[in-house]
Amino acid sequence: MELRDYFDFNSEIDIRIKGHRIAIQHVLNEYRQGMGTDELLHRFPTLSMEKIYATILYYLANMEEVEAYLTREKLMDEEAGKLIEMYGRTPTLINWEERLEEARQRLIAEGKYPVLPK
Questions:
Q1: How many Å is the maximal CA-CA distance in the chain?
Q2: CATH 1.10.10.10 boundaries in the chain
């Protein structure tokens, strides 16, 4: 099994642990704040220790790429929060995807949205 096989790469801001709705940033944010693997297992009881280690190893093996992913995800989460503050939680009223894509393009133009060369 390849390391990437542990994950579902849904988009540039959505990498999930395969078989779960848990995104890698949830595990990695705790890990980067000093939480150990046993604590992560307690915090995320539906994950196996194997998947926790796979997530950490993926981060360590692809640090530049994953750091860029974490930055993109955080920026887009902040943009989504701004839309919710302005319009509430009714996505159809605010053209959710269209407005988030506009925000993404603005952040790219401002040089704040990390894009790695392919």
A1: 45
A2: 3-61
Q: What does residue 8 show for φ and ψ, rounded to 5 degrees?
A: -105, 115
User: Cβ contacts of residue 103 below 8 Å, gap of 6+?
Assistant: 76, 79
pTM (2 decimals)? 0.82
As a whole number of angstroms, the distance between CA 47 and CA 109 comes to: 38
**Proportion of the chain in helix, strand, coil states, percent, rounded to 5:** 65, 10, 25
- In sequence order, what are the beta bridge partners of 7? 17
Fold for the domain defined by 3-61: Arc Repressor Mutant, subunit A (1.10.10)
Q: pLDDT tens across 50-76, in order?
A: 999 999 999 999 999 999 999 999 999
Q: Residue 51: count other Cβ atoms within 10 Å of its Cβ.
A: 21
CB 45 within 8 A of CB 55: no
Token digits for 9?
Answer: 């790469």
Three-state DSSP at 63 gives helix
Measured between alpha carbons, how far is 110 from 33 in angstroms, rounded to an integer?
Answer: 29
